[in-house]
Structure prediction request, 811 residues.
Amino acid sequence: MHGSSRLVLAHFWAAFAAFAVAVPLGAWQMLVRSPLHLWVDPEQYYRAVTAHGTTLAYVFPTLVAMGFGYAVCAVSLGGPMHGMRLAWTGFWLVIAGAAIALASVVAGNATVLYTFYPPLMGSPFYYLGVLIAVAGSWIWIGLMVSHFARWKRDHPGLPVPLAMFASTAGALLWAWTSLGVGAEIVFLILPNAFGWTSTIDPGLARMLFSWTLHAIVYFWLIPAYIAFYSLLPQAAGGRLYSDRMGRITFLLLLIFSMPIGIHHLYADPQIGTGFKFLHAVFTGMVAVPTLLTIFTICASLEIAGRLRGGRGLLGWIAALPWDRPFVLASAFSLLMLGLGGASGLINMSYALNSTVHNTQWVTGHFHLIYGGSIVIMYFAIAYELWPRLTGRPLAAPKLVRLQLWTWFVGMLITTLPWHLVGLMGQPRRMAYFDYTDPALAPQAIWVSVSAVGGFVLVFSALLLVGVLLASQRRPAAAVPPLLFSLAVRPPRSLPASLNGFRVWILLVVALTAANYGYPLAQFLFLQNTGVPAYPVQLR
Amino acid sequence: MTNGDRQGSQDPRFAAWIGATVVLFLVAGAVGFIWLPSAQRGAGGALDLWDAICRAVGLPVGSSRAAVPAAGQPASNVAWTAATRKLLTQGDAARGAALATVCNNCHGVNGVSADAVFPNLAGHSVAAIYKQLEDFKSGKRNTAVMGVFVDPLSQAGMLDLATHYASLANPFAGAAPGSADPAARNLIEVGSPMRNIASCAACHGPQGLVPGAPELRGQQRAYLEQQLQAFKAGSRRNDISEQMRSVARQLTDAEIAMLAAYYSSFAGVTGR
Prediction:
């Protein structure tokens, strides 16, 4: 892969190592608060939740996005990357930051959950660790943008390859959205954690976190969408239905996924209802790129199915090569995206949200979207890249399919009951429940079922690591190079609006100022909004 | 810069997309800031339109600005404000240790009392100890025994004492309860929602992070029972917002004895 294989492989291995530790923690949490187990010390429970969230939100997807971004850069631009030393520095910063943050969590000094929840206040090292990891990912942002700009300069008038265009959109999105959590840590949390301030403003902190909290999911999602557009049509034996639709999708994600974060704060009193409504409307807009993607991908798969001899209205579906991991994973991903998207539309509706706010419904929703439809595409990407990175074909195709099936089934067994008990009123973030209470007894069976799903997911996660390890130990063999999908009509030239970001970045900044400007600025003139912090440490 | 960019100035998509975004923003703004607030003005237009719009923007208006009249005397003169929290960091443990020579006669040299009616203090939070000293001094808590000892203390002295006892190692931290009474654990971890009894653990731990809520692990049995009975009878009244009185009133005498037995059953690392 033009000399980037080791770099990409390091990112993916670090990501999956973190993943293999964090998934069993999640299953353990589900077990101990289910009726199948006695209650444990809540301190242990929340420590595990913090480690699980910190690893799977800040470390695992960031490393996958970075690694896949480097792979896309090398393959789609067709040459060795520059700045390899910088790229390795970024990698080690993420690893070091993650290690520092998780050490604080394991020591019991930062049981604040990955969303920080000020005025809870943990050890400053936890927040510093997160900050260092984010700083590492900023190096990746710089490298993506510089490769994009350099390629455009060297190829005037030519369309930037779609995968690289999308990867750069993801990098720009992360650059803008990570500023929220960065500002929260630097200006509010660290001064308090070091003891320089006696109060912290939870309303302002939550708003800054919401700046990051929604678009971070789209930063995680973009590698999966790149895989849909750039790898799936090729893997299914067809062509991409529309290259332009892909570009429009990634631009819409860049523009609309960020200035909408207040939909996480519908229950927060410090924000006027007008802004909540405004953010709800713009949240509705992010459904557009997802629907465009589902349309384009289904059309591309239909092309593949018909090329393979599928006939009739739906015959092309049966004709698709379902034994190929990429096709199987993508179908699972789209199914989970459909379900999770539907529950997401409920969450974003101001009035409906009040019935599910802070219940297990929400936990079910984001595990289905992120843990389900996004992460299963990370697996598919790994299976597609592995032979190209290691020069060895993938081991045990049957086990690969079993791994994808168990992840899909396990995720449904885990998350569907979560949605249900959420509707029954079970709150999230609780260490234990008394299921002998008649009010909670009907939830017991569903919570137990859900806990079993957690262990199916652990099996699947360990199987993934096993398959990847076994593949790397096979003898070297000739492996066809990685190719990105061709569009039905590959673009020869593109209008500036679909081949660059300059004007769109201005639009993103303006929209952010319009949607966040006043809610943030009001903290400058509202008095007495700070409260004493609440130190979280072992006594 | 490139051919593509030169085309860019004429690319109609920029104007169309940006225009559509602006229109969306204006329409959403009109609905969110004018139409919905005007529909939410309450029965008979309880709020005038301008106030309704201000509220949608997030500006405090009208009734929310009116001060809430306070009646009666507060349960304690200590309030958990930022200023109090800051004050609590300013005690001097060494000076406190010197002052504590009198206190040690009842509360024990290590802050672990030898008599079940006197509470242990070792490793309790500065906030919890300081609040009780201040309440004894102001008469918010029964001064029969403690009054004579706190009278000569200044605020700084009380802070120093609290800091001294907080700095002593709590021999019961991390210990397991000697009693595994499931009924007691149920009250401690779940409470009794139908009787409006919140779980003890919600404020007193295992994590025990609520400002002012004292550590209970290993606390003296007779002391706990006496205090819960005093809250129940209303003879102790220094709990802010009647937090403890409203719980204790609902507890039966048997439950009070059971909770006292449970918390006092923790075996300290130094033994009893």
